[in-house]
Description:
By secondary structure, the protein is α/β, with parallel strands linked by helices.
Amino acid sequence: MKVNAAVTYQKGTFTLDEVELDDVKSNEVLVKIVACGVCHTDVVARDQDYPFPLPGILGHEGSGIVEKVGENVRDLKKGDHVVLSYAVCGHCDNCLTAHPGGCEHMDDLNFQGKLEDGTTRLHKGEQPISLFFGQSSFATYAVANEKNVIKVDPDVDISILGPLGCGIATGSGTVLNALKPGVGSTIAVYGTGAVGLSALMAAKIAGCTKIIAVDVFDNRLELAKEVGATHVVNSKRSDVVEEIRKITNNKGTTYAIETTGVPEVFMNALHALGTRGTLAQVAVSRGPVTLELNMDVMWNSKTIVGVIEGDAVSKIFIPQLVEYYKAGQFPFDKLVKFYDFKDIDQAFEDSKIGVTIKPVLRMPQ
């Protein structure tokens, strides 16, 4: 079938074009995309900071309505409202032990342009077009394996739910699935973009007593207070470690989440941790980090852990987030601003300069 898509033919660009989308195979689902979130990972692939074969169609926070299912698909049917999440193999040790963020085939299935059978469903004439995250949702329709198609409550506006497939789940899942802070814990979140703000909301759900947001933008810190932060620190105007020590009665935080990838921010997060504290790194590094292992880690029994995709089992976690949203506990819609699909370049620019926290592209219907 013919679909409209934003194709990256060359590094750093999008071209709105008509391409061919092949029919579903036995375990696949055709989804009419209603909307798709814009995520920093799309930027990384578009700009070739991480290798992704071109030409390709990006987009990995798609949401929409099931149009057709393959003959072996049992849990989904035409008309279901769904969110598309990251692709996993489902059979490696990490997938089977409920840690699919560590799927042994993560790179192959999400960044190398093909589905599990080694082919793509997208073409322009004779030219194959690479898939992204097993979905390529910067398009009016997408084909995905049933494993990364998640049924959601049809009573909730489907156009806002796409970001639950990656960025929003990364922040909230790092708290609720990976760190699992106890009631009364202290946590600091470094960076108040979509991932960081989602982590703050989750920390409130988890019952953390002191929830500290760190950023350089006052407007984002104000929003952080709206969605869960009990304290905020502007790192342009304050010594972050000193301020956090004051807030925590010189104990440091029990947990920290670093969402920026900036080495200096990472070191602040580590130094502001308390004894036996845990730092979760969720962002791709923007440069090398040098640690003094004795003083920075061992003497105070600190833990540093990398977390991918919030360590979330998407088919379980995304419906849980929807329920938190319905209950008024997870107001992630405060982060969203909608753009028409044709304005994709503007959406990416606004995200880059910080005008919009979570752009969401609405597809032409």
